[in-house]
Specification:
Length: 350
């Protein structure tokens, strides 16, 4: 089940939108979901694109997520806002949050917009990159959609992958885009490894006796490990407090397992920050300096066995270019699930 076929981005967008429309999602919302989910796949985030479609559709059908949410501002100041996502898909909620943050940052220089009663929103880079189009720096943080990590030294699953992404524009080089979980591996990578019949490297997960766990099909028995040991645990805790607790969203024991419970409201919390470069520096001069920093990093002398220095966002840019040209690889197992979903929804197969 490891064979793959490539699907053009336009066809994938059309398929995803048709699936959501078959569940009575309004056309604009379905198109926006399809656009962002396909962008995730084009960027190489295979665990966060069309891979998630059956799960999203299942949650909608079970009544656990709204297809036409009322996304509203529940508190606001000049440079801040808090949104109630109306239990809508996280892609729709955080798109609105990013738009609002950019609007405010044009006036204030920087703006922070949080959200509660959102849902899983795909990869973090989607929202950190949105401000780039307006010559702004973007930062996005979320509470993960299921707890897979204990506090450092413990065994109770009280923390999630709690990702962060930061995007910084450049002139001629790809944007600097950091997108990382606070765990060694995002849980989406565990799920895709299981789907492809692959094993996990040691260091991703351990069992409750502290032994390495490499079979992704047994991930329910395991614990994700934080990056940098207690430092990653500390980041996950802080991000959860800022994206969850501060917004009145779920954190800790209150997090609903998005993977296991399709009916319950997740009350997922996220926030996005937009920073207008012009409030601090000449935009073109700053972007040129980013290019220069890029060149400095790339020109570093290499350790033995290292072929090149790579910067955050470099692989994203290369994967995007390759998949825009050649299509998005769909593994056989995923393709079979999508075919079954299409038949169930009464839409054309992918």
């Amino acid at each position: 089940m490891t064979e793959k076929r490539n699907v053009k981005a336009d066809r994938l967008r059309s398929f995803i939108a048709s699936a959501f429309r078959a569940c009575d999602m309004p056309q604009y919302n379905a198109a926006r979901m399809a656009e962002l989910m396909t962008e995730a796949d084009i960027g190489g985030q295979d665990g966060h694109g069309v891979f998630r479609l059956p799960q999203y559709i299942g949650r909608i059908r079970a009544g656990g997520m709204s297809v036409d949410p009322e996304i509203k501002i529940i508190s606001e100041r000049t440079a801040t806002a808090l949104l109630d996502g109306g239990n809508g898909p996280g892609h729709l909620v955080m798109s609105r949050a990013a738009e609002l943050a950019m609007e405010k940052a044009k006036t204030c220089g920087v703006a922070w917009v949080g959200a509660r009663y959102s849902n899983h929103a795909g990869p973090a880079f989607l929202y950190a990159r949105m401000p780039l189009a307006r010559n702004m720096i973007g930062l996005y943080v979320a509470v993960g959609s299921a707890n897979h990590m204990p506090p450092w030294g413990g065994t109770d699953l009280l923390l999630s992958t709690n990702p962060i992404s930061v995007a910084i524009p450049s002139n001629t080089r790809p944007a600097i885009v950091l997108d990382m979980a606070t765990t060694v591996a995002a849980y989406g990578k565990v799920k895709t490894a299981a789907d492809r019949g692959e094993t996990m490297p040691e260091g991703w997960m351990i069992d409750k006796q502290g032994q390495p766990l490499t079979d992704p099909r047994r991930s329910g028995e395991g614990l994700l490990l934080p990056i940098g040991g207690p430092k990653g645990y500390g980041l996950s805790l802080i991000f959860g407090l800022l994206a969850g607790t501060l917004n009145g969203a779920a954190f800790g024991k209150d997090v609903v397992d998005f993977n296991a419970d399709p009916k319950a409201t997740t009350n997922t919390g996220q926030f996005v920050i937009a920073l207008d470069i012009a409030a601090f520096a000449d935009v073109e001069a700053f972007k040129t300096q980013v290019d220069e920093i890029w060149e400095e990093m790339k020109s570093s002398a290499l350790l033995p066995g290292v072929d090149a220095i790579r910067l955050p966002g470099e692989r994203l840019a290369a994967t995007t270019a390759e998949r825009q040209a050649n299509g998005i690889p769909i593994p056989q197992a995923l393709g079979a699930r999508l075919d079954a979903l299409a038949d169930d929804l009464g839409i054309d197969r992918l």
